[in-house]
Every structure is written in structure tokens, then in C-alpha cells.
Amino acid sequence: MAANRLQIQGDDSVLLRVTHANLKTFSADIRFSLQSTVDSVKEKLWKKCGTSVNSMCLELYDDTNTKLSDLSDNSRPLGFYSPLNGYRVHIIDLDPSSVTSGGWLEDTSLVEKYSISEEAYEKRDGTFRKFKGRLASQNPSALGNKKPDNYMEDLCANIKVGDRCEVEPGEKRGVVKFVGRAESLAPGFWVGVQYDEPLGNHDGMVKGVRYFDCPPHHGAIVRPDKVKVGDYPEQDPFEVDEI
């Protein structure tokens, strides 16, 4: 009890973890004044979780998850119950029709989804389907420009991993690290390059897929028509052509 009294005298606030019986994913660290009444604590928690003050029952647990007491007297200050930093206040919602009951706030599968019949959708104006149809009638090629899976495959015939290369635009030099299709990018063939200098956009990982490894900001994946392979040695940044 000496530690509890010391906290009340030396610091008028406490940081408590808050959990909720109905909301399994709800957990928050909230600072409370020890001078606040239990009723004021409930007001603050109502704004956080949606359980009404009149339906809220509070339990206090220590940092070993042992229940210490019920905060049952709304008129008493929080400090009366001697909470310490790291203790937990657990909310129990006594209202069976509360917004927190039944999992509605956490499980979206319980929410009824809007649906419409195919016939009703066809009768509607301003839908994406109608827009897509008008676009196709005005410009038939607009929706048919998807590149084939073998797009630029022929340009990769003389490009292989390990080749020195130069990439346009900018005459950026490096080494080929990947040749092939990239499922996270557009259809067709791509070439992965590790630049000699930090001129790239990544480290060989694009949209969560790793195609090769290289230092950060040294990697790029480009179309093969941007890549020339051959005798492209690493450039000396301090080399001068003329004096």
C-alpha cells in the first residue's frame, strides 16, 4: 500500500490499459486523473468504446492480471482504488442491446451487404458498366490494349543475368539481375538491373514481390527496349575527360 499512497501523493494521474468484454480487439492505454470520480472515468470511456455510462461496470486488475476490485462507487475518486501505472480497467457492458454486443462493431460479416439484381442494375443510368460500354463504342481500342504475356520477349534473347548494361534514359550503368515476367507488374517481359550508383527506386522488391537482391535505391525493373548490354564498365565518378 505504501507504493499506492506514494503515487497518489506524488502524481495525480495514472496510465491504465483499458479492455472491453464485448470488444475483443479493443485495447487502449489511457491516462486518468486520480482525482476524477468513477463517474467521470465512465464518461471518458463511453466516448472511447460506446458503452453508455449507466450500463458500464468497471473492474480493476493489477499487472499480474489479478482482479483487485470493482469500481462500484461512482462518487469516489479513482485514487481511492489505488491504481498504479500498468494496471488494467476492464469494461463490462450490462446492456444486452448495446451497440457493443453481438460483435457488430468488429465482425463485418455480420453486417448485411447491399445487393442489387442484375435486371435492376441494367436499368440504372450512370453505372460503370454503362460508362465502359460508351467508352468501347467511341474508342474500340481503348479496352483492348492489354499487352500479351510474351510482350518484348524477343528483345530479351541477348540479355542474361550477369551482363553489364546501360539503361536509358540517363545512360545509367549497372548489371542485369533479373530477366523474365513480373507478376506484380504489367504483362510481358522485364529486366531487373542493379545500378552502380543509387539511382534506383528499390532493393529488388516491387509491390511485395522480390525479384532480386541489391542495396537500397540501386534497383530498377525496366522494359528490355531500355536496356543495352555489352562493354559498359563501372564509371569512375572522379574521372575527367579533359583538362
Describe the structure.
There is one protein chain. The protein is of the alpha+beta class and 243 residues long. The chain has 4 helices and 12 strands. It has helices at residues 2-10, 38-49, 118-123, 128-138, and strands spanning 13-20, 27-33, 56-61, 67-70, 88-93, 164-167, 172-181, 189-195, 205-206, 209-210, 219-222, 227-229. The strands form 3 sheets. A 5-stranded mixed beta sheet has the order 2-1-5-3-4, with helices on one face. Strands 11-8-7-6-12 form a 5-stranded antiparallel beta sheet, with no helix packed on it. Strands 9-10 form a two-stranded antiparallel ribbon. It is elongated. The model is unreliable at 1-9 (pLDDT under 50).
Poorly predicted regions: 1-9
**Major sheet description:** 5 strands, mixed
Strand content: 25-35%
> Which descriptor suits the 3D outline?
elongated
Summed up, the helix count is 4
Give the helices and strands as they follow along the chain. Answer: HEEHEEEHHEEEEEEE
What is the β-strand count? 12
Helix content: 10-25%
Q: What Rg is obtained from the alpha carbons, in whole angstroms?
A: 32 Å
Structural class: alpha+beta
The side-by-side strand order for the widest beta sheet comes to 2-1-5-3-4
Q: Compute the separation of the termini in Å.
A: 83 Å
Whole-number average pLDDT?
86
Keywords: Chaperone, Cytoplasm
GO cellular component, one term: microtubule plus-end
Subcellular location: Cytoplasm
Pfam family, one: CAP_GLY
Characteristics of this structure?
12 strands, elongated, alpha+beta, 16% helix, five-stranded antiparallel beta sheet, five-stranded mixed beta sheet
